[in-house]
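Hey, sorry to bother you again with one of my protein questions. A protein chain has come my way and I'm curious about its shape. I'm sending you its amino acid sequence along with the backbone structure tokens. I owe you a coffee for this, so here goes:
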Amino acid sequence: MTKKQPIIAVIGGGSCNREEARLAEEVGRELAKRGVTLVCGGLGGVMEAACKGASSEGGTTIGVLPGDNRQSANPYVRIPIVTGIGYARNVAVVKSSQAVIAVGGNYGTLSEISHALQSGIPVIGLNTWTIARNGREDKAIISAQSAAEAVDKALELATKESNDQD
């Protein structure tokens, strides 16, 4: 039996600032260099930047699209998955991965973070949301300071999760 290639989700806003785009592109490149499949929402912003980075290194990119048109995928998505289910596709994005890297993001990103954490899927954050409970920071989102650190942490936790399930 062959070992399956890890799948890491990269999540973030459909529009983003220059720094978020740079970080997302670096994350995509790092994932591809390490033989990881990238799954995302398939549209613009952070998703496109991450896919661009992964594609530049020959990586595999999957875009889980909210609408009915595969042509809506950003140009760097190798495998578009058409769902027609709108934001509900956020669940499919995170559930398809062994770890999630969040870069920036808006409320859609926050919903993906929530679905991942609720499912026990580790979330690594780069310039993204923090959460608090009763005024105390909840450390469930694991902070990273660089793209390489985010990928390192995601792969370490994804490997641990995979081994725990074997």
